[in-house]
Amino acid sequence: MQVYLPIAEVSVNAFLLLGLGGLVGVLSGMFGVGGGFLMTPLLFFIGIPPAVAVATEANQIVASSFSGVLAHFKRRTVDLRMGTVLLIGGLVGAALGVVVFNYLKSVGQVDLLVKLCYVVFLGVIGGLMFVESLNAIRKTNAGVVPKRKKHNWIHGLPFKMRFRTSGLYISVIPPLMVGVCVGILAAIMGVGGGFIMVPAMIYLLGMPTKVVVGTSLFQIIFVTAFTTLLHATTNFTVDIVLAVLLLVGGVIGAQFGAVIGAKLKAEQLRILLALMVIGVCAKLALDLLLMPGELYSLGAAGGH
Amino acid sequence: MRLLLTFLLFFALPLKAEEVVLGLSQDTISIDANFSGSEILIYGAIKRETEIPEELLQVIITVAGPSQPVTVRKKDRRFGIWVNTEAVEVDSAPSFYAVATSHEWPLVISDTEDLRHKISVERAIRAVGVAADDPQRFTQALTRIRTSEDKYQQRDFEVNLRQQTLFDTAIKLPANLTEGAYKTRVFLTRNKEVISVYETEIEVRKVGLERWLFTLSRQQPLLYGLMSLAIAIAAGWGASAAFQILRRR
């Protein structure tokens, strides 16, 4: 069934969009990532203009994250306190990120820098996570009880706060810093930042994997809602018809994702996420390294 | 002045001895939610008061969508990776352009006439003052990309011409149409020279829900954004509630 999208000005297959939304929704519910980094290239591929794809996806992620977070609320795996702290950091970071982005744009070659950032970042995060979770799985198989709570310099910082759901008693400074860093990266790369936030919460803050997913979704809702409004009012690129088609699939997928995620062990969840991050990294690296089929590309005039 | 005008008219008339009478299968194209491309039938007859001249008559029909400036970028290998290195701004390129002719292109029209009336796809793209050592590469790339998307079509032998009097062609419009007035031109040529031009417009418009959403997004962007968010939240909550009910059973 073909549907004409009023803002994107293209006609696309409705079932294809429902399927795409569903697929990304499952990942969202399972890993606590928004899925923007996966959806953007897919939408480009079916012919949605890039500006519309990025803006509309933010709107779809609001829906699937909300659906996912409700499922996690029922299971009491959302740390509201931690989420709020991260969110405050994230909003500050996003504002800083916009400044950094505009500076890079004035220097030129911002696209390239963003892509290189992505590849290096995703490669490092994915690689480390993969090795760590592989070791963890091997240890559980060998019967060694994993030690989660390690004492390091983070525990020496002031302004301690109790995060009951996560079972942590740490200073608010590290979560705030994580929020700010992710916010900056998210604004520069144009994504919600879930796939950076999730590993950061697990490894830097030492939060339990199960709580991380729900908490990440919680803060993604606000970040993407803000992005949607920004795009709608400044670029007029949110396509509501496209968003509805994607989010119908997305909200259902997110529910399934949360169910699947609850059945998996923490190490398995981490290793799958690591594989996904490495996959996206490899795809981006190949784009940069292989010779493209068409050397020329078209864009609206005045774009960067 | 008036004398000059009558003088010109007097001399212009014999040149216009053959005129086009045109019909369109539809003069407005409505884009609604189910729009998936369209085909317009352009047909007509040639009205003449004199005998049919010896030289064979040929017909060219063009349909052009609204023009916009376009940036064409080129990738190059730098330090082992592929990056955009060159960018060229094309002043104005039609969002859609179709040319149909009644015979092989070189036999229908001369280059000078093409240049004057801007008929072929290459001529329809306006790229003056392009700052590159070889601007043609960029306009060619633009044509190549849009042709592969069916947005630019150059088709020979697509106009059926009967008895040098009746002609018709069908132009396929793709699903990704831009709104606006689509300028439709009919050229009659003889001996590769244009002897008559006829112009009309086909209106392409969004209607119904599509129109309403588009207008809302431009005129009330904040309201539109909030509406999008409200739908997203409602859908997220709805799915969660539905799953809750399903699980309880």
Automatic annotation (TrEMBL), chain A:
Record bears the keyword Transmembrane: yes
InterPro entries: TM_pro_TauE-like, TSUP/Inactive_protease-like
Alphabetical keyword list: Cell membrane, Membrane, Transmembrane, Transmembrane helix
Transmembrane segments: 12-35, 82-104, 116-137, 176-204, 211-234, 240-260, 272-291
One GO location term (cellular component): plasma membrane
Membrane disposition: Multi-pass membrane protein
Superkingdom assignment: Bacteria
Pfam families in alphabetical order: TauE (PF01925)
Subcellular location: Cell membrane; Membrane
Family assignment from sequence similarity: Belongs to the 4-toluene sulfonate uptake permease (TSUP) (TC 2.A.102) family.
Stated name of the protein: Probable membrane transporter protein
Organism: Pelagimonas phthalicica
From TrEMBL, chain B:
Keyword presence, Transmembrane helix: yes
Domain of life of the native organism: Bacteria
Signal peptide per UniProt: 1-17
Keywords: Membrane, Signal, Transmembrane, Transmembrane helix
InterPro entries the record matches: CHP02186-rel_TM
TM segment ranges: 222-246
Descriptive protein name: Putative transmembrane protein (Alph_Pro_TM)
Organism of derivation: Pelagimonas phthalicica
